[in-house]
Amino acid sequence: MFFNLLFLTMFYNIFSNGLIIHKKNNACSHLIYYPVKDFSSNCYRKRDVVPSTPDMIKLNGYKFETHEIVTEDGYKSLAFRIPPKIHDNRKEKQPIVLDHGIQVNSEVWTWRENRSLAFVLVNAGYDVWLVNQRDSGYTTHVKYKMSDFKFWANSLDTVATKGISAILNTVATATNKSGSIIYIGHSRGATLAFMYASEYPEEAQKILTGVVALALIIYFEPVFYVKLLFQLSPVLSKIVNVLRIPVINYPVKNTAKFFKILCTGKFQKYDYVKKGSILKYYQEQLPLYNLTNCKLPVYMFYGTCDIFIKEKAVKKVFKELGCSEKEYFRIPSGTNTKKLKFGHNDYLFAKDIEELFYRNLLRVLDKLQPKK
What we know:
single chain; alpha/beta; Rossmann fold; nine-stranded mixed beta sheet; two-stranded antiparallel ribbon; 13 strands; disordered N terminus; AB_hydrolase_fold; signal; AB_hydrolase_lipase
């Protein structure tokens, strides 16, 4: 179900920008409809409304700060900080970075009113940072416009090393809490954390106190949709280039890169060479990310109905990690949970999210409190 929506969204974002005239909804009658605003009959087009993470934070009654994160390769992304109440010192205002997956942005952490993870964590006393990657729509560049194709010409490796490093250093400087920051990533957001921690283990240990990976994708067997996307991506890229369609917010190329790496069955770096005007991808002798370099405490969650992640893959990552403090959790847990289902995106939308996920997550976060 998740990838049906993902695949449909990708085609929608490509062709609605240049080939198909489509009503673009930007307002809904209730907060719960925003995740499906492009398809819901409860949403509509309003000229003076552009829903955003700040809008959702304010609608839910929280104060926030906007921070600009600048990477060494010229990208400027917005991060939204939701601090706990002034006199709330239960968690000593420990910073938590929430990083999103593919095809979405920081808005996903705010869509469910007071049940949204961002607000659950703030209410628990944490200093929450909602970050955006360079393909999220909350990013500009010092040289290129979003309509320039060079804006999107970066590898997933660059996003992980330059992007995550800039985010964490910004949060550490702003909070003065280097060494006590928790990183929570969903899907690709989790994958980026392990790329970063494998490449910069010393920096990661200096800044972070632990990583919580939700629906981590590193090793998986490609399902039909991924195989189809992989086969179509060169064609789609050519269509976009020929028709000069600016694929705003969710570029197919970056998504294709993500699944290109994963389809190899190896946690390897991505590379390409330019041949004429066509990018020719190759995989021969590419270096691998060394998970033994990751010495941080790691806690992983996976759903029993996640079509991308199986327990076998989780155990493989678990075995390769170089940290001594590590644990993984199945959702739902127990033996009498066959009727309960938890998929790849249910960390955001599950009906019983408090019981199935939040309760265990908060216990894990308690383990990652700064050591006194």
